[in-house]
Write a structure and sequence with these properties.
Shape: globular
Number of strands: 10
Order of helices and strands: EEEEHEEEEEEHH
Structural class: alpha+beta
Number of helices: 3
């Protein structure tokens, strides 16, 4: 016997047909207390990208974003709380239909869906440097140089428009929560 179709359009992907990834826009303050963003130069493909990678089994997307950002950039980091619009309900609330501002959120600020040998889902977080750069954090298959530059330079230098859009939105969120001259 056939069940009813779900009343809204939807697609189901089983575990062998998708991969979950996480990445971040990594921020720090420079000596003048202005924001900088870390981008990666992929020396193999000559691309400029944001740090991201696959979630390991048993790892949360938050943990994956922090781990991948650290591995690829060499910088230890933590989630950067920010006020953002979300449809995620507060604890103990069942449904929220309209987006609303949540202060101090560490939820993903964006998600990417890519058709790449199956479906690739990338959860994007805001992160901030939490320690000194470490050498030797990249895996054998990675060939990145990380550099901190101004947000405007990052938007100009990133290879893909999608990454530029992510930086623009991340910067808007961070600047609204942490104005220049206000140390985090």
């Amino acid at each position: 016997m056939e069940g009813l179709a779900w009343p809204k359009p939807s697609v189901v992907h089983f575990s062998e047909a998708f991969v979950i990834c996480a990445g971040s826009v990594l921020f720090r303050r420079d000596a003048e207390d202005t924001w900088q963003i870390c981008i990666l130069h992929n020396r193999t493909d000559q691309l400029f990208v944001l740090p991201k990678g696959r979630k390991d089994c048993g790892e949360t997307t938050e943990e994956a974003a922090i781990r991948e950002t650290h591995e690829e950039t060499g910088y230890p980091c933590k989630l950067l709380p920010c006020t953002m619009m979300t449809r995620a309900p507060p604890p103990s609330i069942n449904v929220v239909d309209e987006p609303r501002a949540i202060e101090g959120a560490t939820e993903p600020f964006a998600v990417t869906f890519r058709d790449q040998n199956g479906t690739k889902v990338i959860w994007w977080y805001l992160t901030i440097v939490s320690g000194e750069k470490e050498e030797g954090t990249q895996t054998a298959s990675e060939n990145y140089l990380s550099e901190f530059i101004t947000p405007g330079q990052a938007i100009q230098k990133l290879t893909f428009q999608e990454d530029r859009n992510l930086v623009h939105r991340a910067l808007t969120l961070v600047q609204s929560c942490y104005p220049e001259g206000c140390v985090t």
